[in-house]
């Protein structure tokens, strides 16, 4: 039931591996659909699994506010509550506190904020982020970190990064307390926490913005604390794409080769391929699901915007190379009609396709790495997805 | 490829039969989920079929306005356009003209109205309703009729019913022209119409409000015109339930036993059972789908409103007797959470369940009739579904 990561093959910096978790294995490089509030928007779990999703992500901030981590713990944890028996990763809640909550105040202790739902006041500390995720019982929990906007000054970035390192150490200490006590513990400073998943792993997060030396300093300090895996945070927030790739490349290089590397919040299909090439093993992003609901489809020939009038009488599938339910049963003309008519089914069909495209891309990436032809796959993929002038 | 209805067994006035259509057979009594704009809201066709839906309904008014019947004809008809290869029924558009459109003016010629979408002006005549449905190519088309509000005076009801009979005759004449010309025909008064389904059947509609003699007059006149099947319209519009049952009973009795009888726009699970007992073979209603999106679930023990606080920590399925995907995978607590969180997945899961419940009820009805135990089934069903005080 414990967490284990095994690299099975490499091709340049790209690698194929297996994450073993208490809820089963995940082939890497992996894309994790985002199940914000306990559901990947506009899909059923069954369809996710059929599309090849082996792990999904839950957002701690949302689940903490509604329905509440204690209610979820009473249901037996997030897996049982949502009926998803495969691996789950939860973020720390920090990103949404920084992007969504109101009136937030950051101190050394943690983040005070008001709920975007009802204005209620909360205090998210590193220890609390660990406790909440312990109750949720995800297979992989993330440390609480501070996410800065881009651009930020070097001074602000250094200060924030160093605080994130201190927070990471507190998160690890809290988890260690749980592990040492093998479950429940209560006291004046340590409230009772139901541990929903005894095999939960914890990942540290490297920050440092776009400053190579700060990234290195953060990576070294985070690795020194010691986690089951390492994430790269604070990217995909508006920086130029080449700068993102360069930070990913430099950071991945200083992370231990025997631990999974997770690039948080990225990205486009091109980003997946480019960052796998730089040693990334795990990704999550709302792009395929959010854009689906807005009518943007990712295809093997580039992105298409299904609202476009040129699809009104197009009897072909969204993506002629795709074998998903949407592409094998429905035309662009129908998808366009449903989208313009405001039918929920449009969001469902578009989401099914976009996730199938992302998950199929990951599968093709893994196969290319195993065959040692990843670089030619990558060149061909980048050519293909830019074949259409992106019409959206 | 032609239309045929065969009664296979009867039990009192209830009967089991088979509708054969150009797109396959339908077991009756049948419930037809409503696919307003070419999709049953919040579902995929695959899940509909898996739930036991053998026929779905499309709304001519909506499809005529968007994407347009001519566009659909160019796609090869509604089946091909929406990717549903089983039977389809289309209404005439009249009901939505009377309930949804703006500034409508009814004359002997037809109904002038403005689109609720963009205010564009249209004129729906009986002939036009036939033409539009010919382009859509449904397996069963309905004649254009006038739907009155409840209550209406006897005088208004009689006048409207008699006009509906004249419109029915014009609809039948128009279809006969198509059949005689075996397809395309054009001229100053007869524009070219693409016939998307050469085996399309046409049903007449009995009106007459809640006046038994007007209903009888309408039924006799409509049967005299001669259609492949007969619908009872103008009910489930606010009249007392016992009055509805009584009109259904009296009207079904004067309709030919060898033709299918379709009660339009009804109803609750209790209505299905009660009206099958009175000789009805086909039903359509938005209740299971619309109420699902509002959080109301139909169960074998009555209706539940999933928003209710008492379900917040309820780990049981929506309906313990149900074998649908929702009930076998998810708890009331999770469904409540998704609904309160505004997740589209809530609508999808609730819709799956409600349709499964309706379609399973029809299956149980058919089995009870075949076994000759329909009356005891009916008594037990009515007791069961009222077991919970309906909490919504």
Can you walk through the features of this model?
The structure is a homodimer of 392-residue chains. The first copy, chain A, is an alpha/beta fold and 392 residues long. Chain A has 15 helices and 16 strands. In chain A, the strands form four sheets. In chain A, strands 4-14-13-12-11-10-6-5 form an eight-stranded parallel beta sheet. In chain A, strands 1-2-3 form a three-stranded antiparallel beta sheet. A three-stranded antiparallel beta sheet of chain A has the order 7-8-9. In chain A, strand 2 (14-21) and strand 3 form a beta hairpin. In chain A, helix 7 (154-181) packs parallel to helix 8 (212-225) and helix 11 packs antiparallel against helix 14 (344-371). The mean pLDDT of chain A is 95. Chain A binds chain B through residues 37-46, 62, 66-67, 71, 74-75, 81-83, 312-313, 315, 325, 329-331, 333-334, 337-338, 340-341, 343-349, and chain B through 37-46, 62, 66-67, 71, 74-75, 81-83, 312-313, 315, 325, 329-331, 333-334, 337-338, 340-341, 343-349.
């Amino acid at each position: 039931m414990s967490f284990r990561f095994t690299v099975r093959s490499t091709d340049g910096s790209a690698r194929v591996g297996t994450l073993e978790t208490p809820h089963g294995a995940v082939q890497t490089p992996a894309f994790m659909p985002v199940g914000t509030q306990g559901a990947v928007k506009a899909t059923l779990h069954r369809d996710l699994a059929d599309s090849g999703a082996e792990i999904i992500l839950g957002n701690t901030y949302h689940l903490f506010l509604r329905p509440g981590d204690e209610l979820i713990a009473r249901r037996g944890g997030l897996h049982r509550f949502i009926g998803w028996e495969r691996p789950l990763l939860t973020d720390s809640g920090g990103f949404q506190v920084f992007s969504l909550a109101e009136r937030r105040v950051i101190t050394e202790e943690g983040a005070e904020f008001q709920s975007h739902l009802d204005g209620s006041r909360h205090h998210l500390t590193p220890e609390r982020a660990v406790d909440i995720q312990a109750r949720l019982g995800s297979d992989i929990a993330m440390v609480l970190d501070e996410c800065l906007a881009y651009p930020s000054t070097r001074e602000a970035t250094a200060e924030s990064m160093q605080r994130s390192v201190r927070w990471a150490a507190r998160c690890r200490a809290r988890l260690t307390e749980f592990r040492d006590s093998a479950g429940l513990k209560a006291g004046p400073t340590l409230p009772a926490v139901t541990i929903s998943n005894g095999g939960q792993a914890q990942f540290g997060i490297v920050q440092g913005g776009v400053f190579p030396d700060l990234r290195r300093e953060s990576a070294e300090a985070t690795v020194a604390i010691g986690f089951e895996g390492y994430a790269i945070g604070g990217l995909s927030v508006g920086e130029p794409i080449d700068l993102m790739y360069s930070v990913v490349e430099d950071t991945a290089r200083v992370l231990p080769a025997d631990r999974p590397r997770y690039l948080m919040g990225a990205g486009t299909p091109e980003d997946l391929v480019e960052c796998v090439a730089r040693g990334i093993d795990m990704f999550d992003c709302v792009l395929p699901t959010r854009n689906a609901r807005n009518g943007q489809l990712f295809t093997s020939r580039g992105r298409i915007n299904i609202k476009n009038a040129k699809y009104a009488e197009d009897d072909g599938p969204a993506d002629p190379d795709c074998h998903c339910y949407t592409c094998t049963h429905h035309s662009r003309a129908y998808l366009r009609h449903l989208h313009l008519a405001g039918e929920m089914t449009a969001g469902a069909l578009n989401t099914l396709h976009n996730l199938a495209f992302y998950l199929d891309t990951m599968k093709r990436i893994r196969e290319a790495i195993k065959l040692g032809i990843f670089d030619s796959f990558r060149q061909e993929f980048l050519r293909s997805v830019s074949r259409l002038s992106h019409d959206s």
